[in-house]
Specification:
Helix content is 38%, strand content 25%. With 261 residues, it is an alpha+beta fold.
Length: 261
């Protein structure tokens, strides 16, 4: 005997058509067991599908984490390489001072700069003055070298000094000279007629003495369109102090002037 329920699915019909009803046994439990088996199969398939999906998702996550780790390692390696490279550049001298000194010396030689002329190495806005040990640096920043020490008293405030000088720029090129004019300069000290660094350098000289002074920009002349100097650079002067004279003010009527012996 075959039992077919009007509410059975085609699969259940197929299953019931292949099942025999034995005497004394009910067909309903058989169909129930068949449905249970189908449900277990379906649940098992769903479980397998979910397991496969979970495994696939885990695999994608693992691959993604692996890719991220790989990218991170590459980025870290690149950063280390850049850091190492920048460390080498920073650790090494950004400007080859020795080479620059040699180049500057060649330029000074071409400009016929005098012996023992100072050298200037620039790095951005910073300037390094390279001189021999014979040069002296004062508290104000003035640098000088006594080529010949004179005799007599040093000039005082209000006295007139007579001197020759040769002015150079940093490359050793002459920019001015009283020797070429064959007429020494005469200036009274204390009336702000001289560049501050120049006046400081000549104040402790003695008549007959020769001195080279290196004037930093802070002690130099003002710069700008209205002046001869267009940039703040060091100036070098070779000075020969010829004479020091006293000065007196005289008045004749409404006329007044200063006379120096």
């Amino acid at each position: 005997m075959y039992l077919i329920s009007p509410f059975s699915s085609p699969s259940s019909v197929l299953a019931s058509s292949t099942s025999r009803s034995f005497p004394g046994a009910s067909a309903v439990p058989v169909r129930t067991s068949i449905l249970a088996s189908e449900q277990e199969q379906r649940l098992g398939f769903e479980h397998d599908f979910v397991s496969r999906s979970t495994w696939a998702g885990d695999r994608r996550d693992r691959n993604r984490r692996r890719d991220l780790l790989f990218v991170s390692l590459i980025s870290y390696s690149s950063m280390l390489a850049l850091s190492s490279a920048s460390g080498k550049v920073k650790g090494s001298n950004p400007y080859n001072e020795k080479r620059l000194l040699e180049q500057n010396k060649k330029i000074q030689t071409a400009n016929n700069a005098p012996d023992d002329f100072p050298n200037f190495v620039r790095e951005g806005f910073q300037v390094k003055v390279v001189t021999s040990d014979k040069y002296v640096t004062t508290d104000s920043g003035l640098i000088y070298l006594d080529i010949l020490v004179g005799k007599g008293d040093c000039p005082k405030e209000g006295q007139q000094v007579t001197f020759h000088y040769v002015g150079y720029n940093e490359s050793g090129r002459r920019i001015d000279s009283t020797y070429l004019q064959d007429r020494p300069a005469k200036i009274r000290l204390g009336n702000k007629s001289l560049v501050p660094g120049f006046e400081e350098g000549i104040r402790d000289m003695r008549p007959g003495g020769k001195r080279r002074i290196i004037i930093p920009p802070e002690l130099g002349p003002p710069v700008g369109p209205s002046t001869f100097f267009s940039a703040k650079q060091f100036e070098v002067f070779d000075i020969e102090l010829l004479d020091v004279n006293d000065c007196q003010r005289r008045t004749i009527g409404f006329y007044s002037d200063v006379v120096c012996n």
